[in-house]
Amino acid sequence: MGLPSHLPRIEQFVASRFLCSCSRYYGRGSRQRQQVQHTSSRAYNVVPPARDSTEKAMMDRMLRVDHAGEYGANRIYAGQMAVLGRTSTAALIEHMWDQEKQHLKTFIELMAENRVRPTILIPFWNVAGFALGAGSALLGKEAAMACTVAIEESISEHYNSQIRELMEEDPERYKDLLELIKTFRDEEMEHHDIGLEQDAEMAPVFWLLKNTIQAGCKAAIFLSERF
Ligand SMILES: [Fe+2]
Ligand SMILES: [Fe+2]
């Protein structure tokens, strides 16, 4: 299905995201066409213009932490690929990483469009993310997958809490953003399930590894929302 050529760049991108991501859930039916037409009829794209300083602060916080999370996920998969890139697990990691690249690209575009700065901790997440990905992969494929399970569960829970917050605020006003976050949340859950299918729970000290990584995730989310 082609995309209307008159759409601005961000709408083209989001529409293409819906077309490729939602096809797994809804097939190539009328709902997709409605979503594309819906986005094209709005005066704004995905994130509505802030009505006041409170809404601006909420959107800044959400986009900044989501960008940081996707950036960190990209660095983790880069680290895993540096170690496991020539093994039979590489194709699966590459598949997940490709989706993370799209998530990150989306938030970079949304931040630029809404004049939101990234967290000042990006250089730290750059190093920490790669070290976590490579370090867990050095412990073995199962430990790399345990890392994936821990990270993806945390990101999914984080997206779920954002979905709840936006639903409580105004589901109609944030309809496009909610759709986007739900799509990404579903893909993070897919990554989580891949990790489990790939024997994450067979990793040595799985629960210790998982709980430690998730504590780190909570701290990363807390800091990235504020700085
Ligand atoms: Fe992601
Ligand atoms: Fe993910």
TrEMBL record:
<dbReference type="GO" id="GO:0006744">
    <property type="term" value="P:ubiquinone biosynthetic process"/>
</dbReference>
<keyword id="KW-0479">Metal-binding</keyword>
<feature type="binding site">
    <location>
        <position position="100"/>
    </location>
    <ligand>
        <name>Fe cation 2</name>
    </ligand>
</feature>
<feature type="binding site">
    <location>
        <position position="188"/>
    </location>
    <ligand>
        <name>Fe cation 2</name>
    </ligand>
</feature>
<feature type="binding site">
    <location>
        <position position="70"/>
    </location>
    <ligand>
        <name>Fe cation 1</name>
    </ligand>
</feature>
<dbReference type="GO" id="GO:0016709">
    <property type="term" value="F:oxidoreductase activity, acting on paired donors, with incorporation or reduction of molecular oxygen, NAD(P)H as one donor, and incorporation of one atom of oxygen"/>
</dbReference>
<keyword id="KW-0503">Monooxygenase</keyword>
<dbReference type="Pfam" id="PF03232">
    <property type="entry name" value="COQ7"/>
</dbReference>
<feature type="binding site">
    <location>
        <position position="103"/>
    </location>
    <ligand>
        <name>Fe cation 1</name>
    </ligand>
</feature>
<keyword id="KW-0408">Iron</keyword>
<comment type="function">
    <text>Catalyzes the hydroxylation of 2-polyprenyl-3-methyl-6-methoxy-1,4-benzoquinol (DMQH2) during ubiquinone biosynthesis. Has also a structural role in the COQ enzyme complex, stabilizing other COQ polypeptides. Involved in lifespan determination in a ubiquinone-independent manner.</text>
</comment>
<dbReference type="GO" id="GO:0031314">
    <property type="term" value="C:extrinsic component of mitochondrial inner membrane"/>
</dbReference>
<dbReference type="GO" id="GO:0046872">
    <property type="term" value="F:metal ion binding"/>
</dbReference>
<keyword id="KW-0560">Oxidoreductase</keyword>
<keyword id="KW-0999">Mitochondrion inner membrane</keyword>
<feature type="binding site">
    <location>
        <position position="152"/>
    </location>
    <ligand>
        <name>Fe cation 2</name>
    </ligand>
</feature>
<feature type="binding site">
    <location>
        <position position="100"/>
    </location>
    <ligand>
        <name>Fe cation 1</name>
    </ligand>
</feature>
<dbReference type="InterPro" id="IPR012347">
    <property type="entry name" value="Ferritin-like"/>
</dbReference>
<feature type="binding site">
    <location>
        <position position="188"/>
    </location>
    <ligand>
        <name>Fe cation 1</name>
    </ligand>
</feature>
<keyword id="KW-0831">Ubiquinone biosynthesis</keyword>
<keyword id="KW-0472">Membrane</keyword>
<dbReference type="InterPro" id="IPR011566">
    <property type="entry name" value="Ubq_synth_Coq7"/>
</dbReference>
<comment type="similarity">
    <text>Belongs to the COQ7 family.</text>
</comment>
<dbReference type="GO" id="GO:2000377">
    <property type="term" value="P:regulation of reactive oxygen species metabolic process"/>
</dbReference>
<dbReference type="GO" id="GO:0010468">
    <property type="term" value="P:regulation of gene expression"/>
</dbReference>
<dbReference type="GO" id="GO:0008682">
    <property type="term" value="F:3-demethoxyubiquinol 3-hydroxylase activity"/>
</dbReference>
<dbReference type="GO" id="GO:0008340">
    <property type="term" value="P:determination of adult lifespan"/>
</dbReference>
<protein>
    <recommendedName>
        <fullName>5-demethoxyubiquinone hydroxylase, mitochondrial</fullName>
        <ecNumber>1.14.99.60</ecNumber>
    </recommendedName>
</protein>
<comment type="subunit">
    <text>Component of a multi-subunit COQ enzyme complex, composed of at least COQ3, COQ4, COQ5, COQ6, COQ7 and COQ9. Interacts with ADCK4 and COQ6. Interacts with COQ9.</text>
</comment>
<feature type="binding site">
    <location>
        <position position="191"/>
    </location>
    <ligand>
        <name>Fe cation 2</name>
    </ligand>
</feature>
<dbReference type="GO" id="GO:0005634">
    <property type="term" value="C:nucleus"/>
</dbReference>
<comment type="pathway">
    <text>Cofactor biosynthesis; ubiquinone biosynthesis.</text>
</comment>
<dbReference type="InterPro" id="IPR009078">
    <property type="entry name" value="Ferritin-like_SF"/>
</dbReference>
<keyword id="KW-0496">Mitochondrion</keyword>
